[in-house]
Amino acid sequence: MKILIVEDEPSLRELMQRTLAGERHVVETAGTYAQAEEKLGTYSYDCVLLDIMLPDGSGLDLLKELKAHGRRENVIILSAKDSIEDKILGLEQGADDYLPKPFHLMELSARIRSVARRSRGGGQRGIVVGNVHLDPESFRVEVDGREVPLLKKEFDILAYFLQRPGHLVDKSVLAEAVWGDHADQADNFHFVYAQMKNLRHKLSEAGADIEIKAVYGFGYKLIENPRP
Q1: I need a labelling partner for 213 at 20 to 30 A (CA). Which of 24, 102, 160, 174 fits?
Q2: pLDDT tens-digit profile of 68-93?
Q3: pTM reported for the whole predicted model
Q4: Among residues 62, 6, 66, 3, which one has the least CA distance to residue 30?
Q5: Which branch of life, at top level (predicted)?
């Protein structure tokens, strides 16, 4: 999962970044409203951890701007102002959850997993396409009930495509989503090709009835190939 932390307190921002990166998330940060606005205007995220009280603006205004543009990132508000008014206002403006400071990092991680499950619909655990099941919480992938060991980036790539079956994905968009902001500006994408080659081989060897096909000149698309 790709996460943007919008938090002006450096020590808390660093602690959250280190903790979530240790849980295998791709984590980017912003310390001001302006930095967050620039990040969100350039890149996409799965989840935004949004402080209300920023030195140059209100996180609620940023939330309002996100929703006005139809952005689909999950948003969890983080605020030292534990007032019912702020909580109601944030939720009414489209936030997915509200976590008052101070909070335990284990609870933050649990809230992130919870909103991710809800966004997948029905609150189910994991993603299933064809005979492939991916559990983002245990980092386990199974084909027909048998585990397929994947490296971290292979897992992240598969998770990205399983959430977008049938969609054409530009290689630069994939690089940014899996490796982090600015990866899309790399001189070449050999690091993407190498990981993709290994992942496609492992899926084929395991008998998966999905395939991540290369689309010449563009990128990749996940398709289903049901076996007879």
Answers
A1: 24
A2: 888 889 999 998 876 777 788 888 88
A3: 0.83
A4: 6
A5: Bacteria
Q: Strands 97-100 and 74-79, how do they pair?
A: parallel
Q: What angle do CA 123, 72, 20 make, to 5 degrees?
A: 70
What's the CA gap between 33 and 37, in Å, rounded? 6
> What ranges make up the beta strands (E) of 32-162?
47-51, 53-54, 57-58, 74-79, 97-100, 127-129, 132-135, 140-143, 146-147
Rounded Cα distance between 13 and 29, Å, is 7
| 105: helix, strand or coil | helix
Cβ-count burial 90-106 (b if 16+ within 10 Å, e if not)? beebebbbbbeeeeeee
